[in-house]
Amino acid sequence: MKTILITGASTGIGKATAKHFIDKGWNVIATMRTPENEKELKNGSNVLLSRLDVLDIDTINSTVEAGIEKFGKIDVLVNNAGYGAYGPLETFPRENIIRQFNTNVIGLIDVTRAVLPHFRGNRSGVIVNISSIGGRMTFPLGSLYHGTKFAVEGISEALQYELDHIGVKVKIVEPGAIATDFAGRSFDFQNNEAVTEYQPIVQGLMKGFETILSDDTKISSPDLVASVIHEAVTDGRNQLRYTAGEDAIQFMDMRKKMDDESFINAVKSQFGV
To answer: What domains can be seen in the chain, in order of their start residue?
Structure first.
């Protein structure tokens, strides 16, 4: 029986992925910052709930050790933990900027580095990094969030060179709009209304997001992303990127067909900015 370690498994994509792999008969190490609050996932013969905060290296190392001790081996790592910081760059508090990059980028690197010696020793393993279509294109006021996701894309693509020859695969999953609480607990929006020059684009962004998130045909379920993650883990292919969601496929196709100026103008039109 294979074992998967998932970060950020308390909600959304992470929880859906944990459930999906449990249903498929895998051992699942479901990690989160407050496992004591978890109501649906339960410790058992094939499930280990563990406290892991990607900003706390001790919890990362202890979780990896506990997972190996319980199941003997970790076969797959899913780096899912993260959140989105949006707002005018000029008005963002520096501590929030650091937290955004520490969570989405440095935390991902720290968890990966903790698992790599185990994968290297086994000469096998799969690393799935949850990016976003926002790692391949940008939207207004997302310089911090998109900066982290572009970093995840570059890290992942470069990492596959050094890991391929030791039998470890790297995969990137790029969802579009997902029906999660991302816009709530996983969304850090900063705006200083006193800086009036940015308010038209702030209003345009909020209206644009409301339009997108109110259209059920443009939003995918976390279960869909979980199924794409399962495909990436089990298909045995050397494919690097997997797009998740019809809207993501459409956006990616549009981005590929347009030059920078055309795409940016289309986004400006979408968000009324």
So the answer is: 3-197+220-248 (3.40.50.720)
